Each structure stands twice: as C-alpha cells, then as structure tokens.
Amino acid sequence: MLERVLRVLEFGKIKESLIKHTASSLGKEKVEMLVPSYEYDEVVKLQEETDEAAKVLRLKGQIPLGGIFDVRPSIKRAQIGGILSASELLDIASTIYGGRQIKSFIENLVEDEWELPILKTYVEQLTPLTELERKIKSCIDDYGHVMDSATEKLRGIRQTLRTAESRIREKLDSMTKSTAGQKMLSDAIITIRNDRFVIPVKQEYRHSYGGIVHDQSASGATLFIEPQAVVALNNQLQEARVKEKQEIERILQELTIAVATEAEPALHNVKVLAQIDFMFAKALYARSIKASKPNMNSEGRIRLFKARHPLIASNEVVPNDIILGEEYSTIVITGPNTGGKTVTLKTLGLLTLMAQSGLAIPALDGSEMAVFSSVYADIGDEQSIEQSLSTFSSHMTNIVQILKRVDENSLVLFDELGAGTDPQEGAALAIAILDDVYNRGAKVVATTHYPELKAYGYNRSGVINASVEFDIETLSPTYRLLLGVPGRSNAFEISKRLGLAEHVITKAKSFVSKETNKVENMIASLEETKKKAEEEWNEAESIRKDAKQLHEELQNQIIALNEERDRILATAEKKGRDAVEKAKSEAEEIIRYLRKLKNDAHVTVKEHELIEARKRLEDTAPTIQKSKKFIEKEQVKQQLLPGDEVKILSLDQRGHIVEKVNAEEFLVQIGILKMKVKVEDLQYISRPLPVETKPLATIRGTSHHVKPELDLRGERFEDAVLKVEKYIDDALLAGYPSVSIIHGKGTGALRKGVHDFLKTHRHVKEYRLGGMTEGGSGMTVVELK
Questions:
Q1: 647: Cβ contacts below 8 Å, ≥ 6 apart
Q2: DSSP secondary structure, 181-227, as one string
C-alpha cells in the first residue's frame, strides 16, 4: 500500500528534486532510501535536523561539504587485506579533510554561541584522523600519482628511469636525424611499442639496423624496429620500471595497512558525514521551494496556511488553507469535474508525506501537521488491462484494501469516490464508505461530483463540505478551496456563456427537480455570503490594524510628552536651586559688607553707598522666566462649537470637538481617542463648511504614514498581493486619488499577478503601465474610486 501511495502522490519526484541538493553520493544514497516515518518522536527529530541545517544556511549562506566520497567499499577491502589504488587512497584522504573542515566550521559556530545541539552532537563523533591524511598526502599527489618523495628508494628508481630514457632518446635521435636515417626511415620520429622505444624503418632496409622487430604498419611497408644499439638500454629501462612498480605496490600496501588500522573510526566518520550531507540537502531543498518547518502533533490535527503543491511552478500554483481534525474530521469536496479538486487532495497527501519524512513544507510559518500511522490514497485512473479490470473495479479493489487496514490514526484520501458506475448506486456506495471510515475515527478528504453528497456534510457532525471556486467569466476553476461551501453545477451558466439558446436552457431547467433547484440556490447564496463575509472581514481587519497603529503612536507620544515634562521640571528645579544658592551667597556677602561698615564707626557711611548696597540686595532675588510658549498662548476668542477643528495645546495634537460637556470643558476626538479638555487648553483652527448632502459615516485618515508609491521588487507573489491589498486600503483612507505600484520588469509574473488582483478590486477605477518618465512597464499607475 505504501509504494502505491508514494507513487500516486508523486513522492518520487520530490526525492528527485532533493537529490539535486546533495553534495556527495553519501547524501544521494540517503535520499534514495528516504521513506516517511510513522513514529512521532522520530518525525520531530527529523524536522529539527532540517530546521537546524536551515538555520545555518540562513545565517551563513553555505557549509563546506566538498571533497566527500563514499569510501566504505575501499575501507572494507583494506580490512580484508586488499591493496588500495592511489586514487582510492586519495579519496579517503579527501574525505578525512572534508570531515575536518565541517567539524571546524560547526565548532566555530558553537563557540560563537549558536544553538546547534544536533550538529554539535554529530561533529563531536567525527575523528580527525589527521595522521592518516598526512601519510596519504605525503605519498600521493592531487592527481592520484605516487610522488617521487614518497620514499628515497622510489626517488632513486625514478632518477634511473629518467636517465635511461634520456640516453635511449639521444641515440635514437641521432639515427633519425642522420642522412642514412632520412633515407631508410619512413618518418623521422621515435615511438613506443610493447613499452620499448622503436623507430619506423622501411621494409627494404629492415636489416640495416639489426635489433628486434616489434610491429609493422597495416600495409606492411613500415616496420617498427628496436635497433640493436638501444636493446641493452631498453632492457635497463624495463628493469627500472619493474622496480618502480614493486616499490609503488609496497608504498600502497603500507598506506592500505594504515587505513585498515583506522577502519572503524573512518567508517563511522562516513556514516556521520552522510547524515550531515542529508540534513543540508533537505535544508537547501526547503530554501529552493520557500518551505517552512511545520509544527508536528500526534492528535491528527492539520492546519495548513497558504499551502502550495511543491511540484507546480510557483508562478502558477494557487495557495490554499486546509484545516482538518479539529471541529471536523472529514472534508467532502463536491462540484463538477472542472479540475482543482484532485490538486487539493494531492497537496494535502504529499505535504503529509513530506512532513513525516522530515522535509519542510511549502506553507506559511505556523502551519501544523499530524503524524499518522498510515496514509492511504485512491487517486487517479488505475484501470488495469492486464487484469481485465474496469476503472470502477480497480478503484473498488483498492478501497477494499484500504477499509481492511484503516484505523483512527489514518489519513485517507478518496478521489471521485464511487465514480465509474451508475450515479445513484455510486452515490450510495460513496456515502456508505465515508460513514465506515468516519466511524473508525480516521481523517478523511474525499472528492466527488455526485450532488447527493452535498447534503452529507449537513446531516453529520464532524463532516464539512467544500468546493473549488469556479470563475464563470473565464469558464475555468480558480483552484481556490472554499471550506464550508459545497460545489454546485455550473452547466447552465457555462452553456449560456458559450451561446446556447435561451429557450433550450429554460427547457433544461424545467427538467431539474425543485429540490435540486433549492439546493443549488442555497449553495449560490452560501458562496455569495461567504465571499461578502471575507471581504468585510478583510476590510475590518485593515481598519483594526490602522486603529491599533494609531493607538500605539498616540501612546508613544503621550509617554514621550510625560518624559519631556519630567525633564523640563527637573531642569527648572535645578535652575531654581542654583539661583537660590547664588542669591544666598550674594546676600551673605552684602551682609558682611554692611557689618563691616557698622563696625568701622569712625567711617562715615555716605548715602549713595547705602543705596548701592540696597540695590545689590534686591538684585540677589531669583527671577522666574516664563516659557515663551505659554506667554504667547493665544486666548480663545472664537466661540467653540461641535465640529470645530482645534489644537490641544498641552499635547500639541489636532482634533475636533464632539460636544460641549459644560461651561469649562469640551469632549474632543483625536483619531480614535476621545478625551475631555478644558477650554483654556484649546486653540481654534477652523470650522467645516456646511454641506447639503446626506450625512455619511466616514473614517478620517491621514497620509502621514502612507507613501504615494509601493515598491514590490524582490517580493514573493503571495506576499506582494497581500501588500498591494493593504496598501490600497491605506491609500483610500489617506484620500489619495491615485497611487503607483513598482513591480519591476523581470519575467513579468509579478506584474501579471498585480494586474489580476487590481482587475477584481472594487475600489480600483482603472490602472495602466507607467509612461516613459514614470518607470515604463516596471510600474503600474492605479486610479482609485
């Protein structure tokens, strides 16, 4: 059953995408073996691994995972006495080095106080094996060749080889360049046959050089001869080569023994590196599809926000909210076969498999997924020619197997339940099957086009109807899931749009029962009500957010005002104390002066000295400087009336009078706040002119925090649409007649998405691309109603 579920939900394609992000064959092998886990604790651990790797990528951008190879076969061969090749030893050294780089990288992050408990545990298990790496690197170069410096003996043998080869070439060069050689040789070159140096001699001169014939040309006209003069030198060269081979084998054997000695820690290192590669492959894949970590639970609860099918292009996929396992455990998606229902079904099933495999899911942060003990799916046309089964028989065979195994911890997905047979019998079977699975406590999502199942959700608690929205204007599904609204047939509307005569449609409607018409009208009413409720909720939410922001701004201003008042009072108090102290000091000095005059009896005090002393005493008194702001405060001369715009002087804020409380106070509204203010704290600004129109309830906005343009460059499509919706509401509150939306040129996907949204917005009068001086096709100018 699991293999079939993985196949129909296309889990294999997820693994194909995941493999592209592995850094080695070790990670690739882990991905190929990946299957969903059905143990809650294991799934939570797998999700935490992915999230921890994603954290490193988010903050550092990358991790050094290069140079790692699957060296397990080589290490095991070393353990049983085989001799490893130079390239195999080089791969082992490279893997040791790669592991050391990863260990150092993670340990540095941990030292910087990063919380990486899982990676820390893994790298602590890595054994450096520095000595083994040094031995291999000192003998084998980066190209997999044993170096001369590996041993002194090899260095001497290589020197002998080069000397012998040089002497042979000198002798043969003299032969090829001689006058006789130019006559007797077919070409003046030196070549090699059977690992010995030879020259090409014409057939008729074969006896001129003596020696040994090693080969001849295809025509027989040329013989490749080893002249007698170099036979002995070639023999020396061959002997040196044999010695070189023996020494290389001895070196490789020593290195192989060193590998075998460290086999256990080396194999464990490979196991740990495979896990780390797998962790970061999952994190890289999550980043590529803009996925997030789901919160896992074991209660069968699913809450997906803006969930996307990961195999559909990001510029085409329609995000949906899917809620299951709380108020209801069964979702029945009804409606005609117009597409969209199966996509929703597959999205839920595939995201469940991904979450239980430790993969992040393409949905918003805060989404929640359950760990099911089993996932069953009956999706697609499984008709089998080999088994001579019809589509209905094939589906029923699969459903029978599902019903034998399903329990309260199962997730079951049925696509077009009961299809392929008589509609009446098929609908009855579908209801019976749903009841059986529901009674066992499983979580179920089923799609069907039978109208009888529309009433199924109304008659049973724990079951909810749903449908995929259909756009009559474009005659295509929008792929938007509508929970709580059953699907309805659009056959008459579609036929009318396509040009079918009105009298034919009217006659067709007469054949439909009254009960069916009632249900269809009820569904239409539900759709309209739901759509209107969503629009009003969005509008109310926007107003609430604006009010909350204004409230917070006013609170901050009041706090700042109180702090400024306390600072001014503290400064004034300090100045007052300083003035008093200064006055006391000067007074004391004057008193001492007067006493001195008194004591000097023989001195006659003149009148002007007394006057001067009295003036100095008066000057010591501290004076209080009143704030210029309050000295110049304008007295209220204009009679204040409700509706007048006024300024609250103590708060330096504008508002308007709501009503007169008493002779000394008015009730004033500042934004969304109302407060009583004394008349002397009010300054008249203006009075609104009377307008002879019907009174309207208005929301007073301000353009203080709203720019005349919105920059969406670099935004994701879903985030961009939300920002545009919020921005237009803000612009309307601010009273802007038109605004500009900058989306850039790029691929045009963002521009198309913005235009599609503007088409349906009720407050957009019209829109156009910017002119030559306005940004061209990279900007859209929107006129508001």
A1: 653, 654, 655, 682, 683, 685
A2: HHHHBSSS--EEETTEEEEEEEGGGTTSS-SEEEEE-TTSSEEEEE-
Write down the pLDDT at residue 338: 58
C-alpha torsion sign, points 263, 267, 269, 270: positive
The Cβ of residue 499 has, within 10 Å, a number of other Cβ atoms equal to 6
581/134 Cα distance (integer angstroms): 82
Q: What pLDDT score does 515 carry?
A: 52
pLDDT digits (tens, 9 = 90+) for 461-479: 888 888 887 766 666 667 7
Per the listing, tokens 């046959």 go with 193
Whether CATH 3.30.1370.110 fits 709-784:
yes
pLDDT in tens, 702-727: 444 677 888 888 787 778 888 888 88
d(CA 262, CA 78): 10
Q: Which fold has domain 295-488?
A: Rossmann fold (3.40.50)
Question: Is residue 539 very low, low, confident or very high in pLDDT (cuts 50, 70, 90)?
Answer: confident
Q: Rounded distance, CA 226 to CA 213, Å?
A: 6
Token pair for residue 241?
């080569």
CA 179 – CA 646 distance, rounded (Å): 118
Radius of gyration of the chain (CA): 45
343-394 pLDDT, tens digit per residue, is 889 999 999 999 999 999 999 999 999 999 999 998 875 444 344 445 677 7
pLDDT above 70 covers what percent of the chain?
83
DSSP state, residue 380? S
Span 89-100, average pLDDT: 94
Rounded to the nearest 10 degrees, the angle between the axes of helix 263-288 and helix 72-79 is: 170
Measure Cα distances from 219 to 203, 206, 319 in Å: 10, 15, 75
Burial label for 270, CB within 10 Å (0-12, 13-18, 19+), is buried
Phi-psi region of 573 (alpha: psi -120 to 50; beta: other; left: phi over 0): alpha
Burial of 535 (0-12, 13-18, 19+ CB in 10 A): exposed
What DSSP designation does 689 have? P
Pairing assessment for the beta strands 709-711 and 738-742 based on DSSP bridges: parallel
Q: Residue 16 — very low, low, confident or very high, per pLDDT cuts 50/70/90?
A: very high
Distance CA 416, CA 337 (A): 9
| Dist CA 557 CA 673 (whole Å) | 13
Measured N-to-C along each axis, helices 40-60 and 117-124 cross at an angle, to the nearest 10 degrees, of: 90
Whether 712 contacts 743, CB under 8 Å: yes
Host H or E run for residue 692: none
Closest CA to 279 of 39, 106, 110: 106
Locate all alpha helices (DSSP H) within 205-298, ordered by sequence.
228-261, 263-288
Q: CB neighbours (10 Å) of residue 630?
A: 8
Q: Are 742 and 718 in contact (CB under 8 A)?
A: no
Q: Tell me which amino acid residue 212 is.
A: I
What type of residue is 290? K
Residue 298 is encoded by which pair of tokens? 């074991």
Choose which CATH entry (1.10.10.10, 3.50.50.60, 2.40.10.270, 1.10.1420.10) describes domain 2-129+262-288. Answer: 1.10.1420.10
The phi, psi pair for 705, rounded to 5°, reads -110, 10
Question: What tokens were used for 732?
Answer: 């309307």
Q: Which two tokens stand for residue 451?
A: 């109208």
Q: Which of 292, 343, 336 is nearest to 318 (CA)?
A: 343
What 3-state class would DSSP assign to 643? coil
| Residue 609 one-letter amino acid | E
CA 712 to chain centre: 17
> What's domain 633-686's architecture?
Roll (2.30)
Of the given ranges (278-292, 346-360, 740-754), which has the lowest mean pLDDT?
740-754
Q: pTM above the 0.70 mark?
A: no
Residue type, 647: K
According to DSSP, residue 604 is labeled: P
